[in-house]
């Protein structure tokens, strides 16, 4: 499950914060699938949630990545940073490997959509503790900077 918070932030906030050029807006970004925020140094933050024990991209991942792809393609200097997360239950090494595989799946999707590998940075897998939700822990976050 992925939610859209504010797609305007992807295109407008960077204009105010850093004076960047606006990325073209596709005719339809209808995917109610991306959670997007825009802190000063980050253009977009998209969270993709995975099934328990799974690293296969969920069906709603492709539309969720649309804002990332739009901005990255319009701004060739932008880098995509991918962080895989896991919960604290079970074997830590297996969980880290699973988080890494989830991040790799997202990287593969970005590359298949035309983003060059040298523009995609994989971060070290991270354990989520204290969130109160195992579902929220099984995620990958993609930011564009």
Helix content: 25-40%
Taking the sheet with the most strands, its summary is: 5 strands, mixed
CATH topology: 60s Ribosomal Protein L30, Chain: A
Q: How many structural domains are formed by the residues?
A: 1
- How many strand segments? 5
What is the CATH first-level class name? Alpha Beta
Number of helices: 5
Question: Could you tell me the strand content as a percent range?
Answer: 15-25%
What is the arithmetic mean of pLDDT? Answer: 74
Q: Ends: how far apart?
A: 24 Å
Low-confidence stretches: 1-41
How many whole angstroms does the radius of gyration measure?
15 Å
Q: Which secondary-structure class do the elements indicate?
A: alpha/beta
String of helices and strands: HEHHEHEEHE
Overall shape: elongated
Give the gist of this structure:
The protein is α/β, with parallel strands linked by helices and 145 residues long. It contains 5 helices and 5 strands, in the order H-E-H-H-E-H-E-E-H-E.
């Amino acid at each position: 499950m992925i939610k859209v918070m504010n797609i305007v932030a992807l295109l407008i906030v960077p204009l105010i914060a850093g004076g960047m050029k606006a990325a073209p807006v596709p005719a339809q970004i209808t995917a109610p699938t991306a959670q997007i925020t825009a802190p000063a140094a980050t253009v977009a933050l998209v969270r993709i949630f995975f099934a328990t024990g799974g690293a296969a991209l969920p069906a709603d991942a492709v539309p969720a990545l649309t804002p990332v792809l739009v901005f990255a393609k319009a701004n060739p200097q932008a880098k995509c940073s991918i962080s895989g997360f896991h919960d604290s239950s079970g074997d830590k090494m297996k969980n880290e490997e699973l988080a890494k595989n989830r991040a790799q799946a997202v990287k593969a999707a970005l590359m298949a959509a035309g983003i060059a590998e040298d523009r995609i940075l994989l971060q070290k897998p991270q354990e989520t503790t204290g969130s109160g939700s195992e579902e929220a822990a099984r995620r990958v976050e993609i930011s564009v900077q």
